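For the sake of transparency, this paper describes our internal protein records without simplification. Because each token names a local backbone shape, the row as a whole describes the fold. One such record is reproduced below, unchanged from the form in which we store it.
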Amino acid sequence: MPNVVKGSKQEKMVVVPYRPRQSLFFIVALLLGVPAAALGGFAYGYYQTMLTQQIEQADRQELDGLKVENSELLRQVAIFERSSVMDQRANEEVLSTISGLRDRVAQLEQDIVYYRQVVSEEVEDTGLIISQLDIDATTRPEIYRYKLVVRQQDADGDTYLTGHVNVNLVGRQDEALVIVPLREISEEQDQLDIRLRFKYFQNIEGELMLPEGFIPERVQIAAVETAPVEKNFDQDFSWVAEGE
């Protein structure tokens, strides 16, 4: 029995079996585990770094794509704005051109009216005129002789005057106003528009028979000259019969 000092604390002793191989295993495991853990940590860190770089690269590519798309959209907006400005300018130019053309047309219309007045004044005293209209009574109260003379004023003797003349009687029949064409009451005329072609003058004459109950009031003459100048005129003559 071992010597024990009285009054001192006594510790219990545990006896364990001695296993040198087990201790060697733990030492080897410790030596291998630390590098493996370090290698695993490095691999995990490298993986995380590569993943982060890939994500950043994808984000940069997407950002670059968005920048390109935004630049293209801005370019299209600029094109549309320039096109809109050009269209607005073109519309303004077209409106200005139309306004100018309208003003020009209005001016030309005024010029035409002026020239027509000038020409009308110039031809008023030239060309076709009525020289004479005679109506003579006959022995029969309903039959009259007529003679219309038209001539070319300022005739040069070389130029033919061409055109036509229309002669109507205007009067009352049963209190109603009636217009009777000369063609219907004169056998010498077979056309409503009597043809004219002469150098100096042309006679239109014959006999007419008044319709029953018709009371003549005036003779209506409408003449058209087509050459050598263009001239139109309408003229009324009171019904005056010689010999009544």
In short: The mean pLDDT is 82. The CA atoms of residues 169 and 219 lie 5 Å apart.
